[in-house]
Amino acid sequence: MNIKSPLRLAVDGELVLKEATRRSFLRRSLTLGGLAMLTGCSLVDEASVDTALSRISRINDDVQGWLFDPNRLAPTYPESMITRPFPFNAYYGEDEIREIEESSYRLEVTGLVADCRQWTLRELRAMPQIEQVTRHICVEGWSAIGKWGGASFASFLRRAGADLSAKYVGFKCADDYFTSIDMATALHPQTVLALTYDGQPLPPKYGFPMKLRMPTKLGYKNPKHIQAIFVTNIYPGGYWEDQGYNWFGGS
Ligand SMILES: Nc1nc2c(c(=O)[nH]1)N[C@H]1C(S)=C(S)[C@@H](COP(=O)(O)O)O[C@H]1N2
Ligand SMILES: [Mo]
Description:
Elements: E1 8-11, E2 14-17, H1 19-29, H2 32-39, H3 46-67, E3 107-111, E4 117-119, H4 121-126, E5 129-138, E6 142-152, H5 153-159, E7 168-173, E8 178-182, H6 183-186, E9 192-197, E10 200-201, E11 211-213, E12 226-232
Parallel strand pairs: 3-12
Antiparallel strand pairs: 1-2, 3-4, 5-6, 6-9, 7-8, 7-12, 9-10, 9-11
Bound molecules: the ligand Nc1nc2c(c(=O)[nH]1)N[C@H]1C(S)=C(S)[C@@H](COP(=O)(O)O)O[C@H]1N2 and molybdenum atom (MO).
The site of molybdenum atom has 6 residues, from loops.
């Protein structure tokens, strides 16, 4: 199994404790009795402690959701600060990067949308494009500044006739990765359906033909090689989230 090992990470000189450390912090700071009372789980073994901790993580999701300010912008940077080369990361190595064929590619959009259909790359490229230089933060202990361009995801969801009062937007990727986000983040002005990296079509390693770029979320929440997008009220989880990473994953 893939375990992200990681835990502390330096962002602009500041040490930030990320989720995995937060879990061990919870383990240390809460007595088992306190944890049992908070979560209504009986803590007789490792599995029930894990259930209790994941309930806390879902409470943590709610708190992050309440604290999320839909109008607050993540920092942007001058192009001179772009990290070169920008790091590659995935749950597999660089020798296994997926090559997706441009001409046959279709983006499937389903769920709570008026217009359930497939989109071509040409249609996505024809939408008004925006570009931004932002910092990507990975819980494995690195962060890097990059430039992504593409369509505003809020505009895309409106064009697709998505139910904007739904709770979640889910993503299925060509490499079997998957994740999901809250609607408030989906509609955030810096959330981009990214088609370019550094002014060029997104290279395979960064998620060709398309990824979702959100400077308000940690790296693992930013899906590459997106094949399908669905709008739903049923919690969809995610590849790392289902292994204990915090679902909201704000940065
Ligand atoms: N499809 C897909 N998307 C993914 C991943 C992945 O393994 N597959 N890994 C995530 C993680 S943990 C990180 S840090 C970023 C890395 O993106 P980069 O290669 O552009 O740096 O992609 C995220 N999105
Ligand atoms: Mo990551």
